[in-house]
Amino acid sequence: MTTKKQLQDQLTWYTSFTDYIENNHINIYNESCIYADNIERQELESKFLEFPELEEEEEEEEEEENTCYECGEEIDQDQRFCSKECYNNSFNERI
Question: Where do the domains of the chain lie?
Answer without folding.
Answer: 1-64, 68-95
